[in-house]
Amino acid sequence: ICTIAAFIGLLAAGRTINVISLAGVAFAIGMTLDNSIVVIESIELKRRQGLDRFRAAVEGVRSVWSAVLASTLTTILVFLPVLFIVEEAGQLYSDVAVAISASILASMLVAITLIPTASARLNFGTENRAPGESKGRRRVLKWIDWLIATPGHRMMTIGVTVFASAAVILLLTPPAEYLPEGEEPKTFASMSAPPGYNLETMSVIGLEVRDNFLPFVGDDPQRFRSGETEVPAIKYLNTRISAGGMRIISQPVDAGDIDALMDAITARYRQYPGMRAFAARGSIISSNDGGTRSINLDISGPTLSVIYEAALATYRRAEEVLGNPRIQSSPNSLALSQPLIEVRPDWARAAELGLSATAVGYTVAALTDGAFVDEYFEADDKIDIYLYGTSGGRADLDSLGGLPVYTPQGEILPLNAIATISETVDSNSIRRINGQRTVTLNVIPPQTIPLEEGVEIIRRDVVDYLRQSGALPASINVDISGASDQLDATKSALLVNYPVALVIVFLLMVAIFRHWGYPLLIMTTIPLGIAGGIVGLALLNGIGAVLTSFGLNGFHQSFDMISMLGFLILMGTVVNNPILIVDRAIQRLAEGDGDNEVSPLDAVRDAVSSRLRPIAMSTLTTLCGLSPLVFIPGAGTELYRGVGVIVLFGILGAAVVSLTMLPALTVAVLEWRVKRRKTGSNRESDLLTTHS
Q1: What's the whole-number average pLDDT of the chain?
Q2: Helical axes 576-591 vs 600-631, angle rounded to 10°
Q3: Which of 42, 270, 350, 599 could link 355 by a cystine bridge, Cβ 3.0 to 4.6 Å?
Q4: Tens digit of pLDDT for each residue in 477-533?
Q5: 550, 555, 557, 558: CA torsion to nearest 10
């Protein structure tokens, strides 16, 4: 029912079914059982106390209604700040938020309607039967009782938990990435030729490169693993050759060999002097140029020669400090050495003849390389129309000055009569950003260097270093943009919206508990759950590193913006178990009256004992629901595995904290409140005695 509700929610919100929204549905599967488990356990407890099935169903729901409502609304409303994140990550978050929210809301409705109805109608045969006390349950309760028995034990439990969590957050939090690549096991590898190369020369080089890799198409992957070949088996090989370079689109037979294939192609490219090589993996999220890990250095200044010198120095320094980065420049060449024929019109003479700048340029283009006229469609095929001279786009440069130019007056003049023609060397393209001449370096750090760390290295060891050494003069401006800009913007949005989520959770619990202090007590588990998520991410990457060291296919899960969504989910879910314990402890404390007064320690003991089974069951079901997303590899798993591992270990850590630190803290707080109440009552009694 709840899974169907997730799809209905996606439909109502106008969302599509994609790998992100399906991940949200999968996350919700384990979480939807929590409310039903709590309600069933409460009903069973009432039946064991001697109530009939119908009365037990009503009283069971009534006793946990506030806790179920609080846990449901905190899980749903914690996603409200996602609506205000306008960056790409916010759009991805919203799909997960809609799927989870719809499922959890449906789970609450099922828990308070369908579950008690079924319990009242079906006889489970548990009336008046004492709850089973397994050896494991007794050991857990005995251990918890020791932790909360004395003030010293309670302070030790609280101190150790807080210290360990703070150490985890400070020491194990990794540098951030922007978004996962959603990488496909294919490479887009480009080779840029230096100035002066023509199509004939590049065709020879391109065929040599192609012939080098063709023998490995359809090869046995085992030959590469055994060291017989230096190139992995290739599934297919597509090449495109132009005068400025070539591009290969290829995919290995074994997806795990993609990095080796990229290295083999770039190594082959670099065997040709002056060639620049760049390779990136395909991506379902960004462009196929490392978009979610790219660091763009926009180098601008007043003169091209100074800009190109600074860009070349930056290029070489980045290669040196980053180890083996993938760097692409725009324009491709970082030297003003492209042979050019410069046609400079005599504007006064052209004006006399009625020739505009557009007309002169179009005429020269048509008589040399060809000029674009228009396009038309033949069925689904688009056909471009070009205008050429009689030479058909192969004009002889020596006869360029004699090309006929037709004037509006009907005269035919040679080109050199209205323009000066000269040979020069310069750049074949000029890139401008905000009107300034600019060279852009697209730097993709190695996989071992996270984006956040890579940005810091470039800022400190490249830009600042070159400034201090004088390689970047004061007239040159360097801006860092690309995915690094988007990372900073998304982090800033999260830093604003995470506190908003905490405030929403707090105010919601204040409204439900009608108390300002108890919600703060419950929310102490949130940072501890976050610490558990960070531990899980570190353990996952540690296992991946161990597998790699043994020559197996390892893995690495980056700490990206989608993974950080796990923290938002944890804010709404880790409070569920504490709500059960604190709510029951408050109820138990309120039941005491006069001679039957219940101490805070006994109230917490009873709360832990009665809520231990639903906490264990809901935690286990959630862990089982998330485990396939985390531990079963497959295409696209890097998109949601980070969220899964953070939520999985965060909930596991929160469950442990809910049964250790939280009871100790709850006893301490309740004892302090009882003591303060008694002190106030004694003062009031003394005051009345004095007046009388």
Answers
A1: 85
A2: 160
A3: 350
A4: 999 888 878 888 888 888 888 888 889 889 888 888 888 888 999 999 999 999 999
A5: 90
